[in-house]
Design a protein that fits this description.
With about 600 residues, this protein is an alpha+beta fold. The chain has 24 helices and eleven strands. The strands form four sheets. Strands 8-11-10-9 form a four-stranded antiparallel beta sheet, with no helix packed on it. A three-stranded antiparallel beta sheet has the order 3-4-5, covered by helices on one side. Strands 1-2 form a two-stranded antiparallel ribbon. A hairpin with an 8-residue loop joins strand 1 and strand 2.
Length: about 600
Amino acid sequence: MHEILYGLQERVAEGVMQKDYLLRPFCDRVRSQQVTTLTELDLGAFNHQTKNIATGFLKHLGRFGLTPETERHKDIWSGYAFGLDGNIYFDKISQSWLREATKAWALDDIPKRRGKSRTAVQSRINAIVQLSDSLRLNRPDHGEDVRAVARVDVTVFLNRLRFLNEQDEVSGYAHVRVVRYARRLLSRMRTLGLTQRDQPLHGICETFGLQADDVPDDPEDNEASKDLPTEVMTQLCQHLDSLEATGSSEIRTGVELIIDTGRRPAEICRLPYDCLERDDDGKLTLIYDNHKSARKARRLPISGETGAVITAQQERVRARFPDTPTSELKLLPTVLTNKMGTKPVTPEWLASRHRAWVESLPEFLVPTVVTVKGRQVTKMLPFDEAKIFPYAYRHTYAQRHADAGVAPDALQSLMDHRQLTTTQQYYRVSETRKREAVERVTAMQFDRNGNRVWRKAQALLDSEHARRAIGEVQVPYGLCTEPTNVQAGGHDCPVRFRCVGCDHFRTDVSYLPDLEAYLADLLRGRERLAAFAADSWAKAEAMPSDDEITRIRRLVKRVREDLEDLTEEDRIQIKEAVTTVRRTRRVVSLGLPRVRPAQDLRPERPAG
């Protein structure tokens, strides 16, 4: 009876709604089995509903009296004793010395972790499991003698992982991760003093360890990153209404906020009810916690449309939990065991509902370059649905802003990264993809008179590509090949701002938007100056020349005509290449910065 009361108390504290008409038959079943403790119950005699109650009670009874001291000597730890969810498994490490050393590492490492997820700890333990399997399979004593292992066993371990990678049993990413984690843990075990007398690693050979050059290179990523193509994002946004039917209003709101804000799924799931504020200028700001970096109360500017999504969700939550103080409410409360609305949906639940939604949608078709009869053509092919997951929206958010010309340091702030190199990983373009794009774009390169100057870029040798690269410097509307200016990095030009009047100037189709914008600026400037009250000499100095306007207009017309002469497939390929080239471009600043607005994937939404 005491165990039932304790289990009932703990379940109520968790927010589980207990139903009297189920508790009575559960107690009757327990009484009929004549057991002295609930742990002796035969759960096979219970129906589905009463079995769930029994399982819940047994879970809490198993946690009773748990402490790190009681768990640390077991081979399977209850994460509850360490403030984590789930269990932590060491039982697959065959060698006792390696298993005990890994436990000592975990005991030291767990307090340094943030949040309740055990994944970070378990993934590192699994790397040691791989090392243990290698020792068990390749040593005559199965690796049981700690004094017998040496560098040769590390070499066998590395070769085994490489073999598994080549057989596609271990991915390239997992290969790198396992070696990196194993190296860190073995090194940390030594610094913890585990090689001393009466410690698990006493007597181990000094050569048993991994060096920095043992870690393989990260596999080259042939994609820009994990961002989703515009065509995929557009289709997803058009079907957001169906997400509510597949999941719930909380899931739909969560996915929509991840898309709009680029925050991590866990950050959105844990948003408090009062997460919306207005700055002094009246602009909306999202207040969230960066749990990964333990940075509280971060501020992110958001649009009126995103603010409207949050406000609507707040109204739904307030109506559902009218008696709970707003300071305790969550913006996205879970629908299960949440009587007061203080428990948020979990990232795992959001991901599962999101996956079901994606699989219910029509096939995603994106333009893809394929080779047909030795010629590259673009076809609309299905996009891999496995690449559509909540965290990919964060990469897409970064890529969208990078494509819009947001400065790297500003994007770093938006992503809330401490280091710029971390931000750059979210929108980098591989050398293979960049090279193909440059070849396509430079095949349509023009001089200042609109004449083609590089028709066969794709046939050049690598040495010629390198020679061209070091013999030119980027300027706002194209390239400069004047040797002195190139040597000075683009900062030694006597005709600055007048590139289209120079014989050393080159441009291509990727600069067409910049040329068109510059032409529009010149025409607007001429009209403003004509109506401006100033001395004639001052207006004459500032007035754009007719020759420059004529030259730019002719150049824009020439580039457009060449584009119109292409086939539809070639135009699609050029458009993709231009996007790739522009997202990686670093242009010498001549004092005329220009930032284009980020693409709105949902233009149908009303302005807020």
